[in-house]
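G., the chain you wanted modeled:
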Amino acid sequence: MIYGVGIDLLEISRVSRLLQNDAFMRRVYTEGEREYIASKGRAAAASAAAIFCAKEAVSKALGRGLEIPLRDIEVAHRDAGAPYVVLHGATAEKYAGLVFNLSLTHTSETAGAFVTAERL
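Predicted structure as tokens:
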């Protein structure tokens, strides 16, 4: 059963300027996300923007907007590279039992994410 859906788009250039801002990176991204972004080399800004979009899309799917701390939403990657959502803290407790389907994409200028939240 679909609980909610969310979508978000972001210009990569907006995130590119913030990659060197340690306070921003620590406030928004988990340690695992920061490591993943750092491993992407020239694609770091596109990856950071796509992950940010995923966090926004998950918040929208939950109907909470920016009420959820961004670090409570983590985008991890399976061995083959497929992204998935992991919730942390009070957000994980509140939304236990939901499963997320996540799709990320980007062009040279724009990143996007689409999420469905399902109650199984």
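The first strand starts at residue 2 and ends at 11.

Shout if anything looks off.
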